[in-house]
From TrEMBL:
The protein's name: 5-methyltetrahydropteroyltriglutamate--homocysteine methyltransferase
Function text: Catalyzes the transfer of a methyl group from 5-methyltetrahydrofolate to homocysteine resulting in methionine formation.
Alphabetical UniProt keywords: Amino-acid biosynthesis, Metal-binding, Methionine biosynthesis, Methyltransferase, Repeat, Transferase, Zinc
Domain of life (superkingdom): Bacteria
Any GO BP: methionine biosynthetic process
InterPro entries recorded: Cbl-indep_Met_Synth_N, Cobalamin-indep_Met_synthase, Met_Synth_C/arc, UROD/MetE-like_sf
Length: 754
């Protein structure tokens, strides 16, 4: 048999987010574990059989996960942190690690490379009881085999596992190689018993991140070892999201069977192929990160080039990465001009199958091939100039430097020391979701909808007044999501009905699709913010999502430069800032939650990104007067290597996430002389826990050890939309009263000094 095609991985959330619903029912105890398991098995079956029907040769098992594949790998290695080891029940322990319990805080989540998918960060320490637990892998293989599908087994490779881990203080995570590699060897030995020939896909995306000499040496030794475990085992080492040329050369010298390479996001991979003779090449040419139809002609051309270098019989056509990052299928999307240009997961599998057949000469490509077009004309708009008044390349920044702006703003707002605020969203309740859904379906009138939103805002403002927060928010009740909402309002965006992509655990997002020039036809947020502002004498923050974040959390046309798209979004936001200001809104927050994840994976591309990302942010806020206070928010805490860039954004106030990590990463702001104001999070909103007043005081005093209290704000880590009112009410109340106590203590100390 000639093997033609491989799918790196398949999304597991389900066509109608069945897994999301099953998980949430299980967690809220409205469904049993049996029911959850049955849904999961049904989804795996459906997904395997779909790929089989499409004649895909290499279909994955172990790409399924109840929560996250890194967490599954933690379980596979029994790298269970001590605080969970007392939980006897396996399932309970698994979800406790992901979500925390009353007694043990959840493990940290972090972004999977430059995607909006979050993985659970392994915690390596000397006390771990490493041992192989291959149960999930072996049973899923058997389950597929029973259904007539002989799978290749997906495993996150040891280098990537260690590279993404956090080791105990002062330790190097790669120092754990001598404990971890033997377990991978044992795994391969166990797998070798399953069948005559077994294919293992070792996912090693860590290799694209400028590997150090240490990583290269470790990689070589590891795969030399692993590929020698059994002659039944064929190892494919797969990287994605960039090129991995440094390691192609090294891996080619080990006895692995094949290399999976991403030719969409790492076209330079072609250069490494000269070292890859004798290896199977799984050529990622169908984009797993974007939703546009494949340009089949261009892909075939690329496949020919690859064949020229390694020999035609060595080439297998593949997806560029797992299809986890794209929505399930176009089938349930309504007809539109855009639809014909799109390919979601299922359509991508079809494209892959067709490419495989054409590449092997079984069919010729013509316009009839399952209706696909070779040339994509997806240009409803061909003008890429952006709004007329801002020339591309021109740098537009707001007036006044920080010192001048800050003096004016202090005079204007008279905020107390350590001003308190929140990040924007308040709980997204069932009723609120139902209200939006019913309005969308036209099941309720516009008046009824607006009344619902007004009531929410009224309550939200009243609550904030009552507990005494200093800078208020409207609570974002009208927004389904901080990116989708703006996508729906802006020109140049298309949004889907059911284009869900997993973000973490059971949480999904519906990224909008950018297909043309972006512009704003009307104010997007002024009405509800003004409504809220009329209800309070305190400042209510205008709330916008920043240009880089809107860009990163959307699907963008690949034939327009990303900096240009960011600039167009920024120009639209700049108009919104001007309108908010004209409506009397004096504090405006522009969230850049995805600023960090947008960083290129390769060092050599970082400075170009930083330049246009900062310029876009500054353009977006360039219409702000000196007295208007611009906030930004980012939901992470490690600014060590990007502090100068954060400084260059020049927001008057930045609120960040620090409640879990504490002061550990904060001193960089003082050390590097960051002068603008900072709100280090003191409330971990990812946990249902309600911190006491006392805990808040401790958190605040601890922040004061590393940050200057004169320019410090007190706020939660992030928005409160995933929390419940029953948690938010007491928690914020404690946060505010703790801040008051700290203020009094500080004042007392000051007077006693004078
Ligand atoms: N785009 C984006 N990325 C982000 C974040 C973010 O806020 N947005 N935050 C960070 C963490 N990631 C997150 C991602 C998703 C969610 C989240 O809460 N998602 C919701 C969906 C949000 C949404 O769009 N909801 C819609 C409708 C969704 C829906 O399921 N409706 C029901 C009907 C309503 C009902 O009766 O409940 C249905 O279709 O069945 C709305 O509220 O209007 C979920 O999965 O549950 C939270 C954080 C990083 N990345
Ligand atoms: C993921 S960052 C969230 C920021 C947004 N303003 C919110 O509060 O939800
Ligand atoms: Zn956030």
């Amino acid at each position: 048999m000639i093997c033609k095609t491989l799918v790196t991985g398949f999304p597991r959330i389900g066509e109608n987010r069945e897994l999301k619903r099953a998980l949430e029912h299980y967690w809220s105890k409205t469904a049993s574990l049996q029911e959850l398991r049955a849904t999961a098995a049904e989804l795996r079956k459906r997904h395997w059989l779909f790929q089989k029907r499409q004649n895909i040769d290499f279909i994955s098992s172990n790409d399924f996960s109840y929560y996250d594949n890194m967490l599954d790998t933690i379980v596979m290695l029994n790298a269970v942190p001590d605080r969970f080891s007392g939980i006897e029940d396996e399932t309970e322990r698994y979800f406790a690690m992901a979500r925390g319990t009353a007694g043990a805080s959840a493990m940290t989540m972090s972004k999977w490379f430059d995607t909006n998918y979050h993985y659970i960060v392994p915690e390596l320490s000397g006390t771990l009881d490493f041992r192989l637990c291959p149960g999930k892998i072996l049973t899923e293989y058997a389950e597929a085999k029973k259904l007539g599908v002989k799978t290749k087994i997906n495993v996150i490779g040891p280098i990537t596992f260690m590279g993404l881990s956090r080791a105990s203080k002062g330790e190097n995570p790669f120092g754990y190689a001598s404990r971890i590699i033997p377990l991978y060897k044992e795994l391969l030995a166990r797998c070798a018993e399953l069948d005559d020939t077994l294919y293992i896909q070792m996912e090693e995306p860590y290799l694209v991140k400028n590997p150090t000499a240490e990583v290269l040496a470790l990689l070589k030794a590891a795969y030399q070892d692993l590929a020698s475990v059994s002659s039944n085992i064929r190892i494919i080492v797969t990287s994605y999201f960039e090129h991995s040329n440094e390691t192609t050369k090294i891996l080619a010298e080990t006895p692995i069977w094949g290399l999976g390479l991403d030719f969409v996001h790492g076209p330079q991979n072609i250069q490494g192929l000269k070292y890859a003779k004798g290896k199977k090449i799984f050529a990622g040419v169908v984009d797993g990160r974007n939703i546009w139809r494949n340009d089949l002609g261009a892909s075939l051309f690329l496949l020919e080039k690859i064949s020229d270098m390694v020999g035609r019989e060595q080439v297998v056509v593949s997806t560029s990465c797992s299809l986890l990052h794209v929505p399930y299928s176009l089938q349930n999307e309504p007809e539109s001009d855009i639809k014909q240009h799109l390919a979601f997961c299922c359509e991508k599998v079809e494209e892959l199958a067709l490419l495989g057949r054409v590449f092997r000469g079984e069919v010729v490509l013509d316009s009839d091939n399952i209706g696909m077009k070779t040339a994509r004309s997806r240009t409803p708009s061909t003008q890429h100039d952006g709004p007329a008044d801002i020339a591309f390349g021109e740098r537009k920044v707001r007036a006044g430097d920080f010192a001048e702006r800050n003096a004016l703003q202090r005079r204007k707002f008279h905020l107390p020391k350590l001003p308190t605020t929140t990040i924007g969203s308040f709980p997204q309740t069932q009723e609120l979701r139902r209200l939006r859904r019913d309005f969308k379906k036209r099941a309720i009138s516009e008046e009824a909808y607006e009344q619902g939103i007004k009531t929410y805002i009224d309550d939200c403002i009243a609550f904030q007044e009552e507990i005494g927060l200093d800078v208020l928010v409207h609570g974002e009740p009208e927004r389904n999501d901080m990116v989708e909402y703006f996508g729906e309002m802006l020109k140049g965006f298309h949004f889907t009905d059911n284009g869900w992509v997993q973000s973490y655990g059971s949480r999904c997002v519906k990224p909008p699709i950018i297909y043309g020039d972006i512009s704003r036809t009307k104010p997007m947020t002024v009405r509800w913010i003004s409504y809220a502002q009329r209800r309070s004498k305190k400042p209510v923050k205008g709330m916008l999502t920043g240009p880089v974040t809107i860009l990163n959390w959307s699907f963008v046309r690949e034939d327009i430069p990303r900096p240009l798209v960011a600039r167009q979004i920024a120009a639209a936001l700049c108009e919104e800032v001007a309108d908010l200001q004209a409506a009397g809104i004096s504090i405006i927050q522009v969230d850049e939650a995805a600023f960090r994840e947008g960083y290129p994976l390769r060092k050599e591309n970082v400075s170009a990104y930083e330049r246009w990302a900062v310029d876009s942010f500054r353009l977006a806020v360039s219409s702000a007067a000196k007295e208007t206070q611009i906030h930004t928010h980012m939901c992470y805490s490690d600014f060590t290597d990007i502090i100068k860039t954060i400084e260059a954004m020049d927001a008057d106030v930045i609120t960040i996430e620090t409640a879990r990590g504490g002061n550990r990463l904060l001193d960089v702001f003082e050390r590097e002389g960051y002068h603008n104001e900072i709100g280090p999070g003191v409330y971990d909103i990812h946990s249902p826990r309600i911190p006491s007043e006392d805990e808040f005081e401790k958190q605040i005093f601890s922040r004061l050890e590393v940050l200057d209290g004169k320019r410090m704000w007190i706020n939660p880590d992030c928005g409160l939309k995933t929390r419940r009112w029953e948690e938010v009410r007491p928690a914020l109340q404690h946060m505010v009263s703790a801040t008051r106590n700290v203020r009094l203590t500080l004042e007392r100390n000051e007077t006693s000094l004078t």
